[in-house]
Each structure stands twice: as C-alpha cells, then as structure tokens.
From TrEMBL, chains A, B:
Official protein name in the record: Kynureninase
Entry keyword set: Hydrolase, Pyridine nucleotide biosynthesis, Pyridoxal phosphate
Alphabetized GO MF terms: kynureninase activity; pyridoxal phosphate binding
InterPro entries per record: Kynureninase, PyrdxlP-dep_Trfase, PyrdxlP-dep_Trfase_major, PyrdxlP-dep_Trfase_small
Annotated positions of the N6-(pyridoxal phosphate)lysine modification: K225
Binding residue positions for pyridoxal 5'-phosphate: T98, S99, F130, P131, T132, D133, T170, D199, H202, Y224, W254, T280
Species this chain originates from: Caenimonas koreensis DSM 17982
Source taxonomy: Bacteria, Pseudomonadati, Pseudomonadota, Betaproteobacteria, Burkholderiales
Catalytic activity line of the entry: L-kynurenine + H2O = anthranilate + L-alanine + H(+); 3-hydroxy-L-kynurenine + H2O = 3-hydroxyanthranilate + L-alanine + H(+)
Quaternary structure and interacting proteins, as annotated: Homodimer.
Cofactor requirements of the protein: pyridoxal 5'-phosphate
Cited Pfam families: KYNU_C
PANTHER family tied to this protein: KYNURENINASE
Pathway: Cofactor biosynthesis; NAD(+) biosynthesis; quinolinate from L-kynurenine: step 2/3; Amino-acid degradation; L-kynurenine degradation; L-alanine and anthranilate from L-kynurenine: step 1/1
Amino acid sequence: MTTTLQDCRAMDAQDPLRPLRDLFVVPQGVTYLDGNSLGVMPKSAAARVAQVATEEWAQGLIRSWNAAGWFTMPQRLGDKLAQLMGAKAGEVVVTDSTSINLYKVLSAALTMAAQDAPHRTVVVSERTNFPTDLYIAQGLCKANGFTLELVDDGALDAAMRPDVAVLMLTHVNYRTGAMHDMKAITAAAQGAGVLTIWDLAHSAGAVPVDLNGADADFAVGCGYKYLNGGPGAPAFVWVHPRHAGRFEQPLSGWWGHAAPFEFAPGYRPAEGISRYLCGTQPIISMAALECGLDAMLAAQPLGGMQALRAKSLALTDLFISLVEQRCAGHGIELVTPRGHAQRGSQVCLTRSEGAYAIVQALIARGVIGDYRAADVASGVQQEILRFGFTPLYIGFEDTWNAVEHLKQVLDTHEWQRAGFNQKHAVT
Amino acid sequence: MTTTLQDCRAMDAQDPLRPLRDLFVVPQGVTYLDGNSLGVMPKSAAARVAQVATEEWAQGLIRSWNAAGWFTMPQRLGDKLAQLMGAKAGEVVVTDSTSINLYKVLSAALTMAAQDAPHRTVVVSERTNFPTDLYIAQGLCKANGFTLELVDDGALDAAMRPDVAVLMLTHVNYRTGAMHDMKAITAAAQGAGVLTIWDLAHSAGAVPVDLNGADADFAVGCGYKYLNGGPGAPAFVWVHPRHAGRFEQPLSGWWGHAAPFEFAPGYRPAEGISRYLCGTQPIISMAALECGLDAMLAAQPLGGMQALRAKSLALTDLFISLVEQRCAGHGIELVTPRGHAQRGSQVCLTRSEGAYAIVQALIARGVIGDYRAADVASGVQQEILRFGFTPLYIGFEDTWNAVEHLKQVLDTHEWQRAGFNQKHAVT
C-alpha cells in the first residue's frame, strides 16, 4: 500500500495535536527535522524575553529577583518539567549545562558507591554514548580511582556485575535514535546493586519517561532540544528522593545552600534537589526555556506525552516507509530500529557514500536535518543522515516533503554538485 | 568647604564621561546605587536580545551556531573583556557561573600544587571572603586532602608560608568595599611559592585591573555586576598563559575539547584557556552580556578604565564627604577605607541600629542600595548599608540626591515607620 501526499494532508487534517504547531515559529519554506539539536522558538518566547529585558531587568532591576520570581526559576521550571518525566514537584531543578549536571550526579553516585559498596570500582557506559558524557566520566573516574568500562551498544549484561558501581546511559542514542528500555535496565541494575544514571537529552519532551516508575537513581538532560528552550538553554537534573538529601555534590555554590541569603561562612546543603544548584543562573535564557516548557504543557489536555508519542511514532513510521517506497534503489539504509519500543523520536539513515553532501543538498532545499560522521575510534563506520521529528510542530505533509526532496536529491545526483561536499563545523 | 547641589550639577556638566549614561536605561525616579549587585540594562540589549530570539533562533535555527557566531561567543566576549583587565586576546573565556569557574581554577591550582610542591597542603583565604567562594573551596579542599585556613581581613602574612599552596582572594570585598593591592600581594605570594586566585566580581569594569602586570595565576569574575550583562549573565575565567595549557580542569565537557565537533570518544583538552569551557552556553544571556561589554568598551576612546576609575573615586569621595557633612550626628560610620588605593567602587556605611530599615526607606524613595547583615560567625558585627557607584551611568547629582534622601530618612526617623524593618529575602 503506497501512501500519497493526499493521505498525508488528510492525516494532518485529522491530527488532534495539529493546533499545537501554532504555538511555534516555523520559518517559511523550512521543513525542520533538527529539533533534536535545537528546537524551534515558541511564539511566546519573543515577548517573554523582551519583557524580562525591558521590564524586569531594565525597570525592576535588583528588585526583580523577588518581585519577578527570578530566584525560584530553577525550582519552578523543574516542577513543570517533572510532569513530563514521571517525576514529582520538588524533584527536579533546571540549571547549568547537561555536562555540569552529569558531573554533579556522577560525583554523588561515586561518593555513594565508595561509602556503601567500596568493592564496586567500575563505571560502565556504552562506547557510542554521547562523547561529552564520556569525557565527564573519564575525568571523574580517574580522579576518584574508578575505572570507566565502555561496552558495545546494548551489551549491558556486562554491567550487571558485583564490581560495577554505576551504569551511565543515554536513554535515546544521539547518533542512531535507538532507545533503551529504562524500566527493564534499571530493574536489572538495581537487582545487581548497580546505580543508574540516565541522560535524557533526546528523551525529555520526545518520548514518555517515567523516572519514578522505573525507580531510576539519577537523571540529567537538555533544555534546548525537544523542550524548545532556545540556544544553550539551561539543563536539568533529577535525583531520586531516596538519594537527593544524602550526598553533597562537589559544586557547592551558594544557590545550593540551605539558607543562601544568610551568607553564612560554612556550606550547608539545601534539603533535596536544591542542593544540586551551584551559582546564579542566566535568567533571560531561563525565561525562554520556561516558554518551551509551557508549550509542552499545552499538550497535556490533548493527551500529553502519550499523545505526542503516538504522533511521533506515526511520523517516524511514515518517514521510514516513504523512504523505502520512494527512494528505493539509492542505497539508503535504515539505522534506527524499526521496533517502536526501541525507537526515539528521530530516524537515522546511512549510505555508503555521500551522506554529508546529501544532508547539505537537503538543507539547501530547506529540509534541515543533520549529519553525523563515522565514529571510527568506536568502530562505527556508518555516516549518519539524522532526522528528528518533534510532534509538537512537525506534521505528516512535512514528512512527505522531506522524503520528496530526498528523492529528488538522489534521483538527480544533486548531492554530487560542487559545494555540497565542502565540510565545515556543524553542531 | 561644603559642596552644594549646584556644585554637583556643575561637575556633571563638566564630566567628559557623562554621554556614556545615554547608553543605558536608568529608570525614571530611581537613583541606582546597586550596580555592584545587578547592573542596569544597556539600551542596545533590548534590541539585541530580540534579534537573537526572533532572527537568529526563530529563523536561523541550528544554522546560527555558525552563521550568527554563537559557538565562538565565549572567546569573542572573553577577548573584549580581556581589554578591561590587563589580559590579552585569547586569555579569557566567558562561561558558566563564577562559582563554577572558581571550582575549575582552584581544582587546577590544587593539581598543580600536588604535583609541583606536594608539601604545600594549605589554601588560605579571608574569613570575610564572599561565602560562595569559601563553599567551593571547602568542598575542594576536603576532597583533595588540603586544609582551608581562613585569616582575618588583610592578615595575609599568614599566607606566605612554605606549607601554603594557594592564596584565594576577592580583589574588592563585597561587604566593605575594601580593595587589595593585587600586584604587591601577588608578588609576595609568588616570592613565597604560593599561587594566587583572584575573584574579580566587584573589580571587572569597576576598577583598573592588570592581570598580566601583576603576574597573577588565576582569576574569575562575574558578568552581571559592573559589566552590566543582565541577570545571571555568564561569568568569566582567566588563567595565566604559563599555566593555561598545563592542567586539565575537572569539568571536562565537549566545549573544552580540542576538536569538539569530531565527537571523538576520548577527552583531549583544547590548547589554552578554551579548555576551561565545559558545556553549551546560554546564548541569549550571552548576547545581553556582549552588549554590556560593548558599552564598557565605548569608554575606551574617553580614557577607558583609568578615566572611569578617576570618576568613580570622585563619586565615592563626594558621597563620603556629603554623608559626613549632611548626616552628621546620626551615628553613621564609614566602613569602606578612605585611601584611594584601598577602595573599590562602592561605599559601605554602618550604624549601630536600623541599617536594614534605613536601606528599605531609601528604596521606597527610589534610592536603591542594599543591606548586608552582620556576619556573626565570622566575628563581623557590623550591619552594612552598601552603595555601589558605577561611573558609566551614575553622576554627581545622583550622589547628592542619595545623600539628601539619606539625610531626610534620618532627620525624620522615617526608617522607624512600620514596614521598613520587615525582612524578606534579598540578593
């Protein structure tokens, strides 16, 4: 059964989530399949950012720390985000960057392991985990006398050993779109006495996450991808309440103090998740992120993350099937798992030649996805064409258009034209 | 010789820096003497923040990382800031918070000491240093087997010992406005084999700083005080080139990698100061800070930091002399040193009673300074009325007005009115 453009338009017409698209600025002539790298701008963000600058900062000045609620933004945004990840109010703070938050929770986990189970001296992660996560882990393991052991994708049985302290995973792989079963892996780890840290960079706002339901230990993630918080938006951190008050994290700054305004000379960590704060936060960027979170929460009356997930799977299923129908014979292969339970909200393709140039040719046509190079050091030879589907603002006709352009780029060998193969820095 | 309002107006009229005030929004009816807590908004920031949101983010999307120069902002802003602190291009990055940057440089300093001089196991700071700096030092010393020794203000001879690894000081004290002689102290420390870390939170943009001239080792500071970068603006870090490439800092994230876009599995620090970066930065807040830095640099053709310093001293001299002339007999005492070489860009007063209520009464009249409580644990009993003078936008008539209101609040006992003594959280 072939799907037509008319079918796609009918799907958009029947999509109950379609009105959410109006909450965002999607540029004319652009099919944006890179929301897993930087989400689009919620329309409300422009006015909100202007308000923070011209009213709260310029007019309110120092008084706005209280009057405009700046000081409690990490917790207020955290409470909003908690609703999207199976966490409770008071369990999440929005602050700093993902890398810094990972440093905090991995430090706490290593302290905990050293105290509770000193024979556990190994941290396990996947070779294909997001590199910055591995960089942070390399440094912390070295400094604390732990060994970082990297395993092949999915070979997690190796982590369930009596010498392993922490299993640190990214829930949805940034390169392949493959998704782990958080609940099953966490349960297996817990059964083996292993703590779990989940990086939700490609999960929060993209797929349903149930941190308390999975009984995870720690989680961190990113505000500027599927949460549409703006470039470099602050990140987040969640710690299970059974741990949150137990250990200090090493970045013991005043925003994590039990009484930050006492300016007491001794550090005394706040109760619970607030001790994972450190220094003053960038308020204008925080305000933009709050607009992104509010736009996510606008989906709650329409079925929330479950409804978004159903649409995301419909979009990625459609993309896969259209690519296979319409681009057949061009050597394009699917990298992302076909099984729904193993797929995040992106589809990754590969081709033995030209992946970079094809992505560039698509961008020139207004279809923005991104390219990921081979990771030779990790034994991953595939070059990736990556397409993220954010169901809040991507529709079925968009998906058709993306494949139509891909087909034309391949049919006409457009990607072999001069210029498209010229590499420059990408993010 | 008494100074009159007319004298003050004449001083404003003759002030060659006066046109700089037009670069900033100073709210009607407000005399803002709290720029050492949160600087005012440069007029350019409103349009720039809007541009980042509605053009670079909303329309440029992921392409703006290159096209709009987002990725190089830490270095670009660092190069601008370097000019204000006696540093060279390529020696400063703007990133993260002051507390986090202090963590990075103190970690590097402790690593260096452990390697070069393992008998040096003490970190010295002042009891009255900014508390969050002490919190960071407490944690790092404990984790690394160092002892944190706190000395009384200025009793720094105690730091010049063969067992001391690091002397960590704030250049201008946040509570008293007293300024250290960076060059002399650094030279004495260097003579004793002690590394120096300077927190420039109340110095950068406020007083001339010559990091290379002083031959300091490390410096950090804040973007939202005298640099007018907006609420929670990112902070900065400088490391002397002789150290910058030598040690890794522990927050080894991808922005500090030698080749961040290779996504290589192993961490390899960038050359020089860029290795002090960690994760993705909040671009909208960074853009606002760049406006603050550009407004500072607009003073360069008018004499730059030296001219700003001369005006700052004239303003604080005037404030002190007017308070002593016009508020005599009300029990107000000067806390900030009278000597120019010992004074930052703020004046701190104290009174045996009512300091908090007096500040509140002044705020109700539109004269915004701030209050700092006694620090009993450190043996500091004085309650502080703190007034910051930012010569970029504060004038001589402003200074007259502030004292006039203070006089009226004291003459009429207005501060004893109900309400002014009711404390709430302040920053």
